[in-house]
Design goal:
- The chain is of the alpha/beta class.
- It is built from nine helices and twelve strands.
- Strands 3-2-1-4-7 form a five-stranded mixed sheet, sandwiched between helices. The protein has a five-stranded mixed sheet with strand order 10-9-8-11-12, with helices on one face.
- Helix 7 packs across helix 8.
- It is globular and about 55 Å long.
- Bound molecules: zinc ion.
- Residues 162, 172, 174, 176, 179, 181 line the site of zinc ion (ZN).
């Protein structure tokens, strides 16, 4: 019999819920799509699953950890994930507290949850300092400093996708110019390739990566731009904090050497000027499908 936490991982298209034991193994897990008709229906599905998982365990529940796509407001206990339009200032903490009255509920951003999971159980095991980064339909970050999660004052630390690397650069969805994300998210690399003449019906980064492997010059060029932007972002960040290890997860990094080779080249190039910086080590995230719920549960078990 082991004690456990509930982990709730709120992503753009699906929500995963799991019970996770205090030795970090997943006891039960289910996923539900976010494409339902109402906020009440979505929350009801989450609540039913979580209550069922809690009832099925004989150990003691230690708390409920939530990892969510942003933006979120930790102090208010609310979230407004961009891709779940009927959740705006949604009071997730207050509602989660009703699932098991009296137990702690902790909310973290999804990239922070991923960084936490990779640091505890994956590619970042044993590191003192580490930047975790997600490169997917958006770009997010999570920071481990002195062996601990650093959430920031509002819970949004490492908002790395929306730091500008070019103040006259591409307009970004957030309203600024030249954000890292405006060059290097999967959809933005596809958009840049198309602006430069890539002829494809597809909007998928997987297809862009395949075209680059086949030698398509616009596809190669847009991955070149995207990986250079990520490298500049990483070097800015590592130089600012004087840390030197980065764990990268998310869909885009699964594309193999067509992504990693130019990324490593640009990191080497961009970091030359910062003399104190040790060689930046970039690692691929190790935990796959379960990283989200594990990271969420670690907000309690960590
Ligand atoms: Zn932005």
């Amino acid at each position: 019999m082991s004690n456990f936490a509930i982990g709730i991982d709120i992503g753009a298209t699906k929500i995963a819920i799991a019970s996770v034991s205090d030795n970090f193994s997943i006891l039960e897990k289910e996923e539900i799509p976010t494409s339902v008709s109402s906020s009440a229906e979505l929350w009801e599905s989450i609540a039913q699953l979580a209550k069922g998982f809690i009832a099925n365990q004989s150990g003691e529940i230690l708390g409920i950890g939530i990892g969510s796509a942003g933006p979120l407001d930790i102090k208010a206990g609310t979230l407004s994930p961009v891709n779940i339009p009927f959740w705006r200032d949604f009071p997730i903490i207050e509602l989660s507290k009703q699932l098991s009255p009296g137990v702690p509920v902790v909310l973290h951003g999804d990239a922070l949850a991923l960084a936490h999971a990779e640091h505890k159980l994956g590619a970042g095991r044993g590191l003192t300092n580490m930047l975790g980064m997600v490169v997917s339909t958006g770009i997010g970050g999570g920071l481990i400093l002195n062996g601990k999660v650093f959430a920031g004052e509002s819970g949004n630390s490492c908002f790395i996708g929306h730091h500008s690397i070019n103040f006259e650069g591409r307009p970004c969805v957030c309203g600024r110019r030249g954000c890292l994300e405006a060059y290097s998210s999967g959809p933005q690399m596809v958009a840049i390739a198309k602006e430069n003449g890539w002829k494809s019906e597809s909007d998928s980064f997987i297809d862009l990566a395949e075209a680059a492997r086949q030698g398509d010059s616009q596809a190669i060029e847009s991955i070149e731009i995207g990986t250079r932007a990520i490298a500049i972002g990483i070097v800015n960040f590592c130089g600012t904090l004087d840390i030197h290890t980065v764990v990268l997860g998310g869909g885009v990094v699964q594309s193999g050497e067509i992504f990693w080779e130019p990324l490593k080249k640009h990191i080497k190039e961009e970091s030359k000027a910062i003399s104190f910086l040790k060689e930046i080590e970039i690692k691929k995230a190790e935990l796959e499908r379960d990283a989200g719920v594990l990271g969420a549960a670690l907000a309690i078990l960590g």
